[in-house]
Amino acid sequence: MTKTGIYNQLKQAEYKLDIEAIQALIWAEQSYYPEGRKDWTDRAERKQSEAMGMFKALKELLPDTSKLKLNEESTALMWEYMELRQELKEIKENLQKAVA
After folding, report:
1. Is the dihedral of CA 76, 80, 81, 86 positive or negative?
2. Measuring CA to CA, which residue among 8, 23, 98, 99 is closest to residue 62?
């Protein structure tokens, strides 16, 4: 396996964990019950911690990744992650407006 292949596999795993974390945060924001909100927030924190571990592993295994390219699957996951982050931001803004 090439260095770029390893890089893409690790980035995909990192993005998948980040996506799961954002989805859990979205569900936490939409939960009607405090227990449910806490459960989803805890799940998100675990996924974020796992993603950070993947990021650290990536940096340790491949310290110079500036020349490596994302493949199509990695790029698609990156865009999905960015869209979910925007959705979470909009949900939080709408909830703040509703409270105000």
Report:
1. positive
2. 8
Query: 55 is written with which tokens?
Result: 């990021």
Residue labelled with tokens 């909100």? 37
Contact predicate 58/11, CB 8 Å: yes
Residue in 46, 54, 45 with CA at minimum distance from that of residue 77: 54
Pair of tokens at residue 40 = 């989803």
Cα 35 to Cα 17, 40, 48, 84, 94, distances in angstroms: 23, 9, 20, 23, 22
| Of the candidates 51, 43, 38, the residue with the CA atom closest to the CA atom of residue 23 | 43
Q: Are 70 and 11 in contact (CB under 8 A)?
A: yes
CA pair distance 26, 40, nearest whole angstrom: 9
pTM (two decimals) = 0.84
What pLDDT sits at residue 60? 87
